[in-house]
Amino acid sequence: MSKLCVTVTADTTAELRRKRDDVVGADLVELRLDTVSDPDVAGALADRRTPVVVTCRPPWEGGRFKGSEEERKKILADALARGAEYVDIEWKANFTDLVSSTGGRRVVLSSHDFRGVPPDLRERAEAMRATGAEVVKLAVKTSRLSDCLPLHDLAASAKHDHTILIGMGECGLATRVLAKKFGSLWAYAGDQHQIGQITASDLLDRYRFRGLTENTAVYGLVGRPISHSASPAMHNAAFAATRLDAVYLPFPAADVDDFVTFGRAMGVKGASITIPFKVSLFDRMDEVYAVARRIGAINTMKAQDGRWIGGNTDASAFLTPLRDRVNLRGARVAVLGAGGAARAVAVALGSSDAQVTVYARNPAKAREVAMTASAAAAALPPPPDSWDVLVNCTPVGMYPKSNDTPLDASLLTGRHVYDLVYNPTVTRLMREAANAGCQAIGGLEMLVAQALEQFEWWTGTKPPAGVMREAALKRLAEFMRNENHVV
Ligand code: NAP
User: Fold this and answer.
1) What parts of the chain have a pLDDT lower than 70?
2) How many CA atoms are closer than 13 Å to the CA of 24, on its beta-carbon side?
3) Cβ(421) – ligand 1 distance below 6 Å
4) Which of 46, 176, 195, 338 could form a disulfide with 365 if both were Cys (CB 3.0 to 4.6 A apart)?
């Protein structure tokens, strides 16, 4: 089991001690003495209830210590002498006498590379181990998901179980969450977001860090940007509720090759796929299901016996909320937009006996989408009294432009308005549709439905629908709170 180490920083030693004592759920607390104005080892260590790692990072290794190297060395030596459980000593500092003063015991010999993955990573690890330090920590900056792979290879080949391997940056999240797979003695959590740290509660609650093993099945969301997505919350909540040994991570791939390389090497079992990879990853599948081929895009992949299979759950998920509300047979349906979602909607409607018209600002695109469903195509906006069901497949009205609407309220003359936008959960279009006497349906139900289908396809387990819906709502509310806070 990999341990959890929570990093604390503060302006003063007294505050550092308070923050140390406030940490919950950690096996170790890293005390960043370089961040305080009055570094006092005795004060920082006094009355501790959790084992600590004492760190006093110099600016040349990403820290904030303002004193001389001699003063820094004194602080580290003091921490060792006072019995700190671990003391972090930078490999490049060359404090060899300090390392040997305890025969390497309680020393975390660390190396941080903020430019990228050094080509001599393996040699560096060996040289660091040769010092006799009890723990060797290698942290490298990741700009691509596949930058994690040299760390993974190192873990696989190392016969040393006292190593910590960290990919800094958002592409390195897997090294933190999957510390066990990376052979890390412990993972760091905290609020050092600039180096890709996540909080202890995210690691423990969202990603169920304590329960993850070397065999944990890895799933995720491939896209960029994806930090706003509700999918990790939904799928991780479902894995927790069904007690599956699986985890779902955001995969902000730099490009399509990046995910293919990473996904194959890490044995990713399945992924949701979003913009901008829905078409480019389609071409990398060993097999693509018929619906996805008709849509021309995949939103889901599953690895099966080493083969990657692509599918699309958007089309059937789109129909889910309509099932009990709308009789599509003979209904006049106006689809607004001609992008990826409109294609999935058109394919879904193609087998429903509805009379579909695709309206888009680009008539050529509208015609192209219409062809997938034997539908008509026209320029925006749909005229009054021309539709029974209106489906918004444009992002108009989506956060942060929540005051926008794709259709003037005076044109809301039909019976049902279905807005695929789910953030906000109630859009201006939906409000105005309800005021005009239409039944309004939001995009959240489709969002949840496509995730339910993904979950079942990947795991063969019935998905906990209520749990996933709650998780999506909670995540969207959290997103709005954070955004409003920033504003
Ligand atoms: P997309 O591929 O980028 O397509 C967007 C479409 O909207 C394009 O046809 C675009 O026209 C059109 N459009 C954009 N701004 C417009 C404007 N101001 N006026 C008129 N048309 C405009 O995006 P997508 O993947 O289809 O997604 C569309 C929306 O559906 C997003 O809000 C997405 O979040 C939502 N969605 C929801 C779910 C769900 O589960 N609820 C699933 C998928 C998508 P051009 O081609 O001319 O640029």
Assistant:
1) 159-160, 484-487
2) 4
3) yes
4) 338
pLDDT at 482: 80
pLDDT tens digit sequence for 311-344? 999 999 999 999 999 999 999 999 999 999 999 9
Residue 171 near ligand 1, beta carbon < 6 Å: no
Does residue 340 have its Cβ closer than 6 Å to ligand 1? Answer: yes
Q: Which pLDDT does position 486 carry in this prediction? A: 45
What pLDDT digit, counting tens, does each position of 420-472 carry?
999 999 999 999 999 999 999 999 999 999 999 999 999 999 999 999 999 99
Is 278 labeled as catalytic in the residue annotation? yes
Question: Which pLDDT value is given to residue 159?
Answer: 61
What's the 336 CA to ligand 1 centre distance in angstroms? 9
Q: Which of 137, 141, 269, 278 is catalytic?
A: 278
Distance 340 CA to ligand 1 centre (A): 7
